[in-house]
Specification:
4-stranded antiparallel sheet; 1 helix; globular; 12% helix; Unplaced genomic scaffold scaffold_6332, whole genome shotgun sequence; alpha+beta
């Protein structure tokens, strides 16, 4: 079982973080809005979404 690190806050806005990027250095965690803003011009980064028990592949 996998879990996001605590505290569960977005790297940028401190909102609830549910996405992580495997393409970004240190695999930061983001809320939906910040993840979209940060990856607007990075279509090939691999985004994963927290389901409550694990991260699964996702797209923005």
């Amino acid at each position: 079982m996998e879990a996001p690190p605590n505290p569960r806050k977005c790297l940028i806005c401190n909102g609830d973080r549910i996405y992580r990027c495997l393409g970004c250095f240190s695999q930061p965690l983001f809320c939906t809005q910040c993840c979209r803003k940060q990856h607007y011009m990075l279509p090939f980064h691999q985004i994963k979404q927290w389901t409550g028990t694990f991260f699964e592949d996702s797209s923005l």
